[in-house]
Amino acid sequence: MLNRWMAMASVVAMAATMTIGGGEAEAGCGCAKPPPALTMVRPAFASPGDVVTLFPPDNKPGEYDLKALGYRLKAKAVYKRDLADGQYKWQIPVVTPALPAGPLEIEVKGPGRDFRIPSSDFTVMQAPLALQQGDTETVAKCYRAAVTANNVVLIPLDISHITDHMIFNGLGEGYPLLFGAADVMIYNTQGFLMQLLTPEQAGIYEIADQGQPDSFALTYDRHEFNTYRADHAHIGGLGLDPLDRAWHTDGSYHVDHDRLVLAIKGTVEGQGPPPAGRTPGFDLRITTALAEENGGTPTTRTIQWGNGCAADPATASAN
Questions:
Q1: Phi and psi for 14 in degrees, rounded to 5?
Q2: Which of 5, 148, 181, 259 has a C-alpha 20 to 30 A away from that of 236?
Q3: Measured between alpha carbons, how far apart are the two ends of the chain, in Å?
């Protein structure tokens, strides 16, 4: 364990010397992201308690009946602007119930023709892991991540308490998920694609092999968001519209940077793509370090995420 701690601390200290594009990162509004695609359900994933929005193909008002895994609820359509195209239309916002993580089919009946959201289009995630600002190591023990129908591992993160320039480093202990930069996408819980790890962004990330039985480790350099917060405090029309907080008062859409989803389409060593549903239990270890400091020893915060994980990583897939 000491060797693992020293290795993690070394990676964070090294990452603290990285630069973004060879210079100072600019933290503007952060809302200049391409809009989500015009799909019938958005976002394509949600944790229990998150709002997911369905778009009836007939664009009709009224009450809709939703059914998924034997769970039924009723929801009324609301008339509001769509983030995808800015047009007013009838939408069905639904708070995601406490359902098992994994792909989910949703059947919808309503005033217009019935429709169905296939399990290939929507996935229930586990609760987001909240991270703290500062030199901290967060360990979620017996963590199990949702896996989409097309074998993408989803890790939702709540970073609403982090605004300073921060270095993130994470890996899964006992879960040998292998991936490259092209396999990693970062979304927010509105469905915006926030970041792709392209060659043009090579200065803000690193992927390293920590050796068996662990996953590859991802280090990511995130610029400060104090400027972003200030820009949204009623400056230049970027204050949030009190009638619809998904939009600014100047009519442009608002992109949330507090709730993110790390989506990894990797391969489990010796097994192949991760099966749809949930991963086996593993320890998710994420270290955060303030980039303006010199990498002191982080404090450790341990969360018992679940129970019943195998002590031997080689047998973890059986649980």
A1: -65, -45
A2: 259
A3: 23
Q: For the segment 128-166, what is each residue's pLDDT rounded down to a tens digit?
A: 999 999 999 999 999 999 999 999 999 999 999 999 999
Partner residues linked to 260 by β-bridges: 157, 188
| DSSP assignments along 91-133, one per residue | EEEEEPPS--SEE--EEEE-SS--EEE-TTT-EEPPPPEE--S
Query: Which among 180, 182, 187 has a CA at the least distance from the CA of 155?
Result: 187
| pTM score of the predicted model | 0.88
Give the residue among 318, 287, 281 at the shortest CA–CA distance from 126.
281
Spatial separation of the C-alpha atoms in residues 76 and 13, rounded to whole Å: 51
Query: Beta partners for 41?
Result: 54
Q: Which of 151, 201, 146 is nearest to 179 (CA)?
A: 151
Domains, the chain, in order of start with CATH, read 2-34+126-318 (no CATH), 41-123 (2.60.40)
What is the C-alpha to C-alpha distance for residues 49 and 102, in angstroms, rounded to an integer?
Answer: 15
Locate 193 and state its tokens.
């694609």
Torsion, Cα of 302, 304, 308, 309 (10° steps): -30
Spatial distance between the Cα atoms of 293 and 186, rounded to a whole number of angstroms? 26
